[in-house]
Design a protein that fits this description.
The protein is mostly helical. It has one domain: Four Helix Bundle (Hemerythrin (Met), subunit A). Helix content is 61%, strand content 4%. Strand 1 and strand 2 form a beta hairpin. The radius of gyration is 16 Å and the shape is globular.
Length: 160
């Protein structure tokens, strides 16, 4: 298997373990802002799920086809909706939704053939590779997981 593909999948598998471990934090920690004026742990985890779903349903199926990529959602609107939903859900529901969607993402990544990982594609005016695209998504995860770790909730083990 292509080495970079393995690194990315490994990160996503560890992210599931990390989020599963959040079931052990208190409800107060779960609903606590990661910094003053910032999202809660619930909102941080909750906003990752719709982005994973977007990647699986609206990006991966179209990257190496002749079909045009659909315009991405409005980032602010999608994040606000996800944050609002995660505030209304139980901790268990948010964690379960994250895990289920992240498993779908992992399954989709396993289906990508090795030669496609360095094959360029275009989103808007940007030319990317799959590895570059997913490396930026991994960086986004790591940023948020580090924020959660900084409130003392749980330890994140960096991946890539």
């Amino acid at each position: 298997m292509y080495h970079d593909k393995y690194q990315l999948i490994s990160h996503y598998e560890r992210s599931i373990v990390f989020v599963e471990s959040l079931a052990n934090i208190t409800e107060e920690q779960w609903r606590m802002p990661i910094e003053p004026g910032k999202w809660t742990v619930a909102e941080v985890i909750g906003h990752l799920t719709p982005w994973d779903k977007f990647v699986v349903k609206q990006r991966l199926p179209f990257l190496f086809t002749e079909e045009s990529l659909l315009k991405g959602p409005d980032v602010e609107e999608m994040n606000a909706n996800a944050a609002r939903n995660s505030c209304a859900q139980s901790k268990e529901e948010t964690i379960t939704n994250f895990i289920n969607q992240r498993h779908q993402l992992i399954d989709a990544l396993y289906q990508i053939v090795d030669k496609q990982w360095q094959q360029p594609f275009t989103i808007g005016a940007s030319e990317l590779t799959l590895y570059g695209y997913f490396a930026s998504l991994v960086d986004h995860d790591v940023h948020h997981f580090s924020q959660i770790q900084n409130i003392g909730a749980i330890k994140w083990i960096s991946s890539i």
